[in-house]
Amino acid sequence: MHRLGHPGTGRRRGLEPGDVVRSVNGTPIHSARELSSIIRPSAGKALTFVVDRGGRDQTLTITPIASQLPQLDSTGAAVKDAAGKVATVTAGYVGITNVPVTELQRQPVSAVPGIVWQGVSQTAGVVLQLPQKLVGVAQAAFGSGSGTSTARSR
């Protein structure tokens, strides 16, 4: 099962934010990597998606478009070329993401002081801990200073 976030161009193909992809062409989907492994090699080929939309299964036929996408290694990480740039390949693209959907919600003016206080107190906590952290860094880099040094002069 794979939940969709903001689908971008996926919406034009019938997908909606919040859809959960259950299967593609009969193959159960449990991760973004599984979904990608079916979509990427399928540019121009119709795929049958079964999605859970609000508790009901919907069957959609979606044809991925050919697009220049990052080349991925076996772990799903982008491959870089000799110049250090991300290598690209032509692959199938549906226009969906697995980023959770977030919505901004209006807050009453009375919520502002609490939000500001939270930010100020978190910043103050970091600032107050900084000297202690710097002492620890200095001790790690230069020693604790408690060791005995026996320099002799003649």
TrEMBL record:
Q: What SUPFAM superfamilies would the database entry show?
A: PDZ domain-like (SSF50156)
Family annotation (InterPro entries):
PDZ_6 (IPR041489), PDZ_sf (IPR036034)
The Basic residues compositionally biased stretches are 1-12
Give a Pfam family name: PDZ_6
Q: Where is this region: Disordered?
A: 1-27
Q: Where is the PDZ domain?
A: 12-53
Q: Where is the signal peptide?
A: none
- The entry's protein name is PDZ domain-containing protein
Organism of origin: Arsenicicoccus piscis
